[in-house]
Design a protein that fits this description.
single chain; 189 residues; alpha/beta
């Protein structure tokens, strides 16, 4: 059986790094894995999505509308933007964080209210996490993505893979310890 994962966020949040670590772990576990990433208009601040499909045999990385088994959103408006990709009965893990796009920063638009509440009305299986708070408590805001990775690994029941080794292989040595703590905190959420 093939599982379809959709990771969505904003450029600069580390969505692609998490996708690479996740894909590597799945490959190491013996799964056939296909990954596709899409960057928005800007490297930082634009919408970023990654589609990962894994199973015994996967023919395409593409996830059609209503086909994602799990969506992990690094930013809540991005969750709302791509909600149509999640299958009925699918699982949504959303970071309760706001990243303001340029029109909001310049005052031309307003960041929408009630995003989490709207998501909870639409999706039966929603896990809201505050990865930003966890990262701040650890003293390194940049670890939010690894907190989210921990949440996703736990949700997918993939704890048997050596994620610590993969984190060490994909990040500079000077940040290993803090990111391992972030991952473990994410698993506990």
């Amino acid at each position: 059986m093939v599982k379809s994962l959709l990771l969505v966020g904003v450029g600069g949040q580390g969505t692609i790094l998490v996708s690479k670590i996740l894909s590597q772990g799945l490959i190491n576990e013996g799964y056939d894995v296909k990954m596709s990433e899409i960057h928005g208009m800007a490297q930082r601040g634009g919408s970023v999505t990654t589609q990962i499909r894994f199973g015994e045999k996967v023919y395409s990385p593409s996830i059609g509308e209503g086909e994602a088994d799990v969506m992990i959103a690094f930013e809540k408006v991005e969750a709302a933007r791509y909600l149509n990709q999640l299958k009925k009965g699918g699982r949504l893990i959303v970071n309760d964080v706001e990243m303001y796009p340029l029109p909001v920063l310049t005052g031309k638009e307003k960041y929408p209210d009630g995003v989490i509440e709207a998501l909870e009305k639409e999706v039966e299986n929603v896990k809201v996490v505050n990865a930003r708070k966890v990262a701040e408590d650890l003293g390194e805001i940049k670890t939010q993505n690894i907190v989210m990775l921990g949440c996703l690994v736990k949700a997918l029941e993939l704890e048997n893979i050596d994620w610590i080794k993969l984190i060490k292989e994909n990040l500079p040595e000077r940040v290993h310890e803090i990111n391992i703590k972030a991952f473990e905190n994410g698993m506990n959420l």
